[in-house]
## 1
Amino acid sequence: MNNTSLALPSHVRLVEVGPRDGLQNEKQPISIADKVRLVDDLTRAGLAHIEAGSFVSPQWVPQMAGSAEVFAAIQQPGGVTYTALTPNLKGFEAAMQAGVREVAVFAAASEAFSQKNINCSIAESLTRFVPVMEAAREQGVRVRGYVSCVLGCPYEGEIAPAQVASVARELFEMGCYEVSLGDTIGTGTAGKTRALIEAVGRDIPRDKLAGHFHDTYGQALANIYASLLEGIQVFDSSVAGLGGCPYARGASGNVASEDVLYLLNGLGIHTGVDLELLIQAGERICALLGRENGSRVARARRCA
Ligand code: HMG
Ligand code: MG
């Protein structure tokens, strides 16, 4: 395939968020050993960027309570980045104690979602991130930024692209090296995705943006393809389509990493990830959790 004529990138970086965005929403207890096994399996599959946990309030998200132990136990070969969510300075300090070398802060483009998710307004959340950014800069830690509800909010409905652009710009200007645009409830479509990237891309170079698509409406792969055409080269995904969002009822998991990889492989786009090992990682965690595998590719391979 001639990717030049399609204006597609030759490489894409996949950010695997299954151990965080996926497991945070599972109901049953998951042992530290099982979480560690999942991260190690993903490392073995060739993922170079893995979000392995979060340092948030255990009252709010109990499933992430053992993140320090997870970071202590996972294999961390050179060249692979392991990140954690940190909503405030307390979370950042806990992450540093656990030896985390890259963190992510998360804001929303919707006021109502911001209140439900982190118990403060958008403006307050951005103010809270300032000392996190300062501390990170002092310690040489890179910070990624997320914006939630970029293509719709479970409480407010439609969100204007200009509102997303404004929050994304604030995160970028305060020092986030990359801003991941989160379609938290998966209501986005390819057309809206392109319009969003055009709006956000006026202020932030497109090579500093990432796509984070939940697959609730089955649109995530189409949205990723639309994003690729708009010059986006980083995508978040979750092995076996694990997860959802505890503060967005009905939201299903991120698009399955296996399905994204199958799409990219078909386009001749290099990721460095091994599809068979990724499928094995997804099958193993699904068996442990006793849940159906959300990856269409993994399910198809079982029958092949
Ligand atoms: P709060 O209750 O307003 O916080 O929660 P507070 O500052 O008033 O403190 C209350 C208690 O929490 C205190 O403990 C603090 O010490 C403790 P107490 O004195 O009562 O014993 N606390 C903490 N404990 C551990 N770690 C911390 C921390 N901070 C305070 N970092 C807070 C505010 C932000 C902490 C809370 O709302 C929270 O943790 N929210 C996390 C929500 C979350 O993790 N959501 C899921 C991740 S976001 C997501 O999935 C979207 C994304 O995938 C993109 C997309 O799809 O859109 C990224
Ligand atoms: Mg998410």
## 2
Amino acid sequence: MTTMDTQELLQKVGVNLELHDQLIAYNNKLFEATIRSAPNRPTAMKYFDSGFHASHASRVGEILDYRTKGGKSIGTFCIYVPDEIALAADVLPIPLCGGSHWPVDYADKMFPRDICPLIRSTFGMAFSGTCPYKKLKDATVGETTCDAKKKAWDLLGFEVMEVPQKKADIDRELWLSEVIRFRGFVEKLSGVTVTAERLKETIKLVNRRRRVLQAVNDFRRLPNPPISGLDALLVSQVALSQDIQTFISGCERLIDELQRRVGEDISAYEQAGPRVMIAGTPSPMGNAKVHFALESSGLRVVADESCTGMRYYRDCVDESADDLAGMMKAIADRYFSIDCSCFSPNKERIENILKTIEEYHVDGVVHNILSFCHTYNVEAKIVDTALGKVNVPSLKIVTDYSFEDIEQLKVRIESFGELIQPKQLQRI
Ligand code: BJ8
């Protein structure tokens, strides 16, 4: 798609071109300075680099085409909204979480300043007229995962899925009923009934996306990871924004190249720095700040525990059921196993973190917490108690999307890096 085509397209979907140019200039500059500046990148990352740019260009065109042919779509903000069911009703989910600092002040039109930057970025884009998807959806589906989100949906009149806050049987039943209600919602939107046959196909398709993500990230367990944490983050971000089939093909090419790199002992890193896991809040597309601060300070990010990491792809939906009720239950169970800090207690998250530390040979954990995200911020203390028992040090970073504090962060990260006693797998 030429520049001219893109501008016409954006105009067609109601984007404010002048402000959009500013947003893209800001995002591109950061992308070049962070993700693209990493050394030893696999050639197959080209697809994911283009996926970054496509999210405000050709992907918009694809969705516009789909809608012109009568397709329906919904905006979403959380990995609790089950893609399988939406797709089985011929409704395309479009994740809308913002990761750019540029639009955050535009959110002040409706929201207080002292809320999470993810919410401010998302609505800052919508209110500044720079979100190309605003007019490309028939409905928007929120969820009750945090107070700021809940009230935002209220204010904006969105459809809301109730995510329970505990994991007792009664909560599981409530969640199943919400998943069934969501099916009714998307069926009504598109006029397409979800059949067992179609749902079986979409369960398999979405699981395939999870499996390629698992395969890419498995390489990060190795002594010399052939892919960096910054690139692995970009892969996850692109998973959320691009066409599933194209994304799967892009990952398959990357997996082949990573396999070859392993054979030739090519590392994504120039030195064998401490191996760290990032835990906590997601880093939606546009935000790679903490990954960059860590990797440009000589640490290696070998695991991401967040929703732009393994929380998104760790578990697949059980494919064994053949009837609609069985499949709906399998989907509800899979999504109910997500260990978001909105749950209380949230012991699965601690178990998953400890398991990941073992599997990825993690020397230290970095809590990446978006400002004003109280559940992850407080839960970091519970995580730290568990880490203390296995002698794994941690560093808590509470920050927003702006780069104002980057030098301070790097000073803290460098001290943390010196404190970590690498236990294992330090080879280059
Ligand atoms: S499952 S992490 S995508 S809610 S918006 S909770 S950062 S204050 S994004 Fe999330 Fe779903 Fe949980 Fe994952 Fe905190 Fe900000 Fe709320 Fe957030």
